[in-house]
Amino acid sequence: MNPFSSETRLRDMIRAIRACKTAAEERAVVRKECASIRAAVSDNDNDYRHRNLAKLMFIHMLGYPTHFGQMECLKLIAAPGFPEKRIGYLGLMLLLDERQEVLMLVTNSLKQDLNHTNQYIVGLALCALGNISSAEMARDLAPEVERLLQFRDPNVRKKAALCSIRIIKKVPDLAENFVNPVASLLKEKHHGVLLTAIQLCADLCTVSEEALEYFRKKCTEGLVKVLKDAVNSPYAPEYDISGISDPFLQIRLLRILRILGHGDADASDLMNDILAQVATKTESNKNAGNAILYECVETIMSIEDSGGLRVLAINILGRFLSNRDNNIRYVALNMLMKAISVDGQAVQRHRATILECVKDSDASIRKRALELVYLLVNETNVKPLTKELIDYLEVSDQDFKGDLTAKICSIVEKLSPEKIWYIDQMLKVLCEAGNYVKDEVWHGLIVVITNASNLHGYTVRSLYRAIQTSGDQEAVVRVAVWCIGEYGDLLVNNIGVLELEEPITVTENDAVDVIEVAIKRHTSDLTTRAMCLTALLKLSSRFPSCSQRIKDIVNQSKGSLLLELQQRSIEFDSIIEKHQNLRSALVERMPVLDEATYSGRRAGSLPAAVSTSQGNPLQIPNGVHKTAAPLLDLLDLSADDPAPQSSSGPNFLQDLLGGDILSSVSQSGTTQPQKSGADVLLDLLSTGSSLAQNGSSTADILSISQDNKNKTSVNALDSLSSSMANSAQSLPASSIMDLLDGFGPSPTVPNDNGPAYPPLVAFESSSLSLVFNFSKQPGSPHITQIEANFTNKSSDIYTDFIFQAAVPKKSLVMRIRISYKLNNKDMLEEGQISNFPRDL
Fold first, then answer.
1. Boundaries of each GAE domain copy (predicted)?
2. d(Cα 392, Cα 257) in Å, to the nearest integer?
3. Quick check: 98 and 128 in contact, CB under 8 A?
């Protein structure tokens, strides 16, 4: 016999395929078998059509194309015999889906089989229709399916109910046709029919409000009675599972009661008693009983109910938490997270058990329990719960420390009753897991420390102790270095000692030792070392006796390969050596940082400072939403770790540019007024005349030292003036602000003044162009006026047009930002102009 002829049995083909040792051999066998089947299809072989289709189904399951056999399915379905129809419908469900056009040809055969006298053929048609029915087929065959819901055989009724579920999902408009038949099916004694009827009822309630109201009024009492009979029924071997009568039916009944009782007090009252009975009588030592109890708890939490039943449900979940099965505990934790919003006080009673779950060996349970504890914390229990979590932090797994520290820090920030407690808890977290906390955490801690003026001494002493034992935690080192730099004198002189503190003696050299160890530690990153250099500069003023030692430590970074450290070292060394008269003013303590403003910045709710826009989201052409940043972002002057923003624009700029420097300049004169925002912006763009009038102390910062007139200095502090500064120093403040903010009329450009410069195309896109025209004023060749001409190249109207520009001090480069609205949609254009004429 030819092994690849139509007479070959299915088992022989399967054996031949499984005997293949390589994929190539398998493909060869399948290819030959498919060729044989194609030949039989061409010859219209009726004797082996069912066998060929069975082979095609196996080949289809292996992943090979079998579309050429689709019509064979229709031929077998049209055959009169049950065996042929069975193979035909099976092939129809496997080889076709509702998107195939061939499916339209089978509708008539399905209709005939749904009206067939043989109930088994009717069952085949219902199975096929329930699996692959399209919307068109559902509309055509819905009357037949609706009629079969009243068929004499329960198996047909069950399949008709399942088929009806597919029909109402495909065509929700037909739902009203099935409401009355389903109501009669809910009175069935046959559990199989009842299960499918309940599922059909639930789907009808989902797609139709009218059906939901009908079932609430007509069927709630009947369903409660069915559930009561199921709970109290005697032993029935055909339905019994682990001593529980048909748990599948009970679960379905609880789910449909949940749907009917949600938002309806009358329906909820009808099911209160049976729910309490299920919750108290069901055994929880078997999986089937736990499944029923879980569904019962879900139903109690969803319906309109008094507090007593909910407390019972939460107690059941509490028992679940003590179960050995991890799956049951995980389900209980999930359910308790939902229950907190319903009855938080009842969940609080199980707080100890939930805390034990945080320490579980299973990672999924740990994370879910931690989320639940986070929701449980409030003002009354924040201290004991935080203590428990921090105690566990000491022994927790490395993989879990990140999540745990994030939750603890969030709890402490939100619910801290007092600043000293906040500082203590944060220090504990940083000492145990400082390498796992985000930068925002220790930034926020520094903000709180600056606001707690009465705790500065206590904090710096606590950090001094912490860094001795936890020097490997980067966050501890950073906060300690910052505080020692700011409050080192309080540490050495034991100022502000609290009663709860233990006495400690720290010398000036001890404080410097801490920072020297931190800056030389090989694991310290750039941020930590930069903070150490800044702290050393401040200590050089606070500890005059250690000034030379500090200078030597600072000088060690002059040869650093990191430009940031090298630059800081050179500048700080210059301050220590050449500008001792200014040093004390430069390194004064940081001003108090605004906690509310810092929190707003972290949440992204604070409007941008010094920007003409109000911080509204802008739609960038690439589709990314971006909040309008401050104008200072154009200059890239912000540090890697920016200081918290203060509540006013000028103060924010002072923090960004070095608040100590600006404050020292303002204090150097006897009657120096507070700088305005325009003055600060002038300082940003140039070393203009406003700074030149601030006395000899300011001149020491901005110009070459008078003691070294004949020497060429490359020191950054001695060479801040530049050609750009000279060109801008006489420009009125109003003109500068017009350039920055786009407000006010453009200055009049005088004609025929000085050398002529060609127009410069500063920016150009498909819809907008910007051209600069340059001119000089008579008698002022060092001042250049720029006229900006904007051209709308599109036919659309631009509104809320804002142009911003900024020029860094060190190079002749202009960075621009253009924002406007197009059809009420925010647009943003950015660019950099670096091709200005050289002799400008």
1. 755-840
2. 42
3. no
Alpha-carbon distances, residue 286 vs 230, 231, 243, 748 (angstroms): 17, 16, 9, 90
Instruction: Tell me how far apart the alpha carbons of residues 183 and 104 are, in angstroms, rounded to a whole number.
Output: 32
For residue 819, what are the β-bridge partners? 802, 828
Find all residues with CB under 8 Å of 553, minimum gap 6, and list them.
512, 515, 516, 519, 536
The alpha carbon torsion through 432, 435, 436, 439 (nearest 10 deg) reads: 120
Which residue, 618, 608, 678, is CA-closest to 818? 618
Is the CB of residue 14 less than 8 Å from the CB of residue 55?
Answer: no
CB-CB contact of 382 with 415 (8 Å): yes
Place of tokens 């004991």: 384
Distance CA 567, CA 562 (A): 9
What mean pLDDT, rounded, does the chain reach? 80
CA angle 789, 795, 799 (to 5 degrees): 65
- State the Cα–Cα distance between residues 223 and 229, nearest whole angstrom: 10
Helices (H) and strands (E) in the chain, counts: 40, 10
Chain segment 310-350, per-residue pLDDT in tens: 899 999 999 999 888 999 999 999 999 988 888 888 899 99
Q: Name beta bridge partners: 827.
A: 619, 820
What amino acid occupies position 12? D
CA distance 599 to 592: 14
Residues 6+ away with beta carbon under 8 Å from 672: 665, 666, 694
Token couple for 431 = 């000492």
Measuring CA to CA, how many Å separate 469 from each of 278, 427, 477, 535, 820? 57, 12, 11, 20, 55
- Three-state SS for 468-498 is HHCCCCHHHHHHHHHHHHHHHHHHHHCCCCC
Nearest CA among 617, 607, 717, 704 for reference residue 658: 717
- The CA radius of gyration of the chain, in Å to the nearest whole number, is 40
Measuring CA to CA, which residue among 402, 394, 324 is closest to residue 365?
A: 324
Q: Which two tokens stand for residue 412?
A: 């402490």
Per the listing, tokens 């601030």 go with 694
The helix (run of H) or strand (run of E) holding residue 780 is strand 780-792
Q: What is the DSSP letter of 558?
A: T
pLDDT tens, position by position, 97-153: 777 777 788 888 999 999 999 999 999 999 999 998 889 999 999 999 999 999 989
Query: Which letter does DSSP use for residue 73 in this model?
Result: H
The three-class DSSP label of residue 441 is helix
Question: Which range, of 174-183, 499-508, 535-544, averages the lowest pLDDT?
Answer: 499-508
CA 147/CA 122 separation, integer angstroms: 12
More confident residue, 73 or 670: 73
How far is Cα 789 from Cα 29, in angstroms, rounded to an integer?
Answer: 76
Nearest-angstrom CA–CA distance, 454 and 499: 13
Rounded to the nearest 5 degrees, what angle is found at the Cα of 633, between the Cα atoms of 630 and 639?
115
Paired sense of beta strands 768-777 and 814-822, if any: unpaired
- Dist. CA 14–CA 3, nearest whole Å: 11
